[in-house]
Design brief:
The structure holds 2 protein chains of 2 kinds. Chain A contains 4 helices and 10 strands; from the N terminus they run ββαβββαβββαββα. By secondary structure, chain A is an alpha+beta fold. In chain A, helix 2 runs antiparallel to helix 3. Chain A has a single domain, classed as Aldehyde Oxidoreductase, domain 3 (Alpha-Beta Complex), CATH 3.90.1170. Chain A has a 5-stranded mixed beta sheet with strand order 1-2-6-8-3, covered by helices on one side. In chain A, strands 4, 5, 7, 9 and 10 form a 5-stranded antiparallel beta sheet that branches. The two termini of chain A are 30 Å apart. Chain A is globular, with a radius of gyration of 17 Å. Chain B is of the alpha+beta class. Chain B has one domain: Ubiquitin-like (UB roll), CATH 3.10.20.30. Helices cover 28% and strands 26% of the residues of chain B. Chain B has a 5-stranded mixed beta sheet. In chain B, helix 2 runs antiparallel to helix 3. The chains are: A alpha+beta, B alpha+beta. At the A-B interface, strand 5, helix 2, helix 3 and strand 9 of A face loops of B.
């Protein structure tokens, strides 16, 4: 599913372009994520962009001391896309952004597979760096995805949420 | 009428992915209490203090949020994406 954000951004403010993103794409997909191929379209054709920052989250082969062989990602269709759009919308309210792309995997994945791409383009690097980190921090605590992993020994278990992720998201609240 | 969806570990523990209640509880807390009264694993999952998150019409919702007839309520554990 593809969500174009422009239509439901908050009312534009005349004295600033903050809040208006030229190019937004949000997708949840059950097919392989080609993270590098997702980056160029975020800045292509916009000569005002001076920096692009991307975060690619990968599946690791270890968790909590156990070797992990596969993982299944589940989401809440409809709500997940809305939650991602709200996070991007909030980032656009904080920084001047020219392009944002968020693509998240669901379904079966293996170690080294990309789980998520967050790519942010802006006129200057500072805004792109901060917005990219903000979006992934909020995604990890606010977007309804759940991971179920299978260990190399064949046990399956749901991955627990982490307090450090909550703390990272909470730190942004203080900088509002 | 209330449409209820259960996700991830909650769905597995309850053995239920979705259902429709004919009753219309006044709030999210009332709905949780009604589900807990089923006893057994329902009581365990929806007992006070358990970390079960709720969304009403696909927006995160607190316990005191009012419910309207026809609402969709999702229950799920803390999220682990990214």
């Amino acid at each position: 599913m593809v969500t174009k954000l422009g239509s439901f951004l908050r009312s534009p403010v005349a004295e600033t372009i903050r809040g208006e993103i030229m190019n937004v794409e949000i997708r949840v997909q059950d097919t392989p994520l080609d993270a590098l191929a997702e980056i160029a379209p975020v800045y292509a054709g916009q000569a005002s962009i001076g920096g692009v920052v991307s975060f690619i989250g990968l599946m690791r082969d270890m968790n909590q001391g156990d070797a992990v062989s596969t993982m299944r990602l589940e989401h809440y269709p409809g709500m997940t896309e809305k939650a991602l759009a709200a996070i991007v919308d909030e980032a656009a309210g904080r920084w001047d952004l020219a392009g944002v792309r968020v693509v998240h995997r669901v379904g079966e994945i293996r170690p080294q597979d990309p789980i998520v791409l967050v790519c942010v383009a802006s006129a200057h690097r500072g805004e792109a760096f901060r917005a990219c980190e903000f979006i992934i921090d909020y995604l990890k605590t606010r977007a309804p995805f759940w991971k179920r992993e299978q260990t190399a020994e064949g046990k399956t278990r749901w991955v627990d949420s982490r307090g450090s992720d909550e703390a990272a998201a909470a730190a942004w609240e203080e900088t509002k | 009428m209330t449409r209820i969806l259960y996700f991830a570990s909650l769905r597995e523990r309850l053995g239920c992915s979705d259902e429709t209640l004919e009753t219309a509880p006044a709030t999210v807390a009332d709905l949780r209490a009604e589900l807990a009264r089923r006893g057994g694993v329902w009581q365990e999952v929806f007992a006070d203090g358990q970390r079960v998150l709720a969304a009403v019409n696909q927006e995160m919702a607190g316990a005191d949020q009012a419910l309207q007839d026809g609402d969709e309520v999702g229950f799920f554990p803390p999220v682990t994406g990214g």
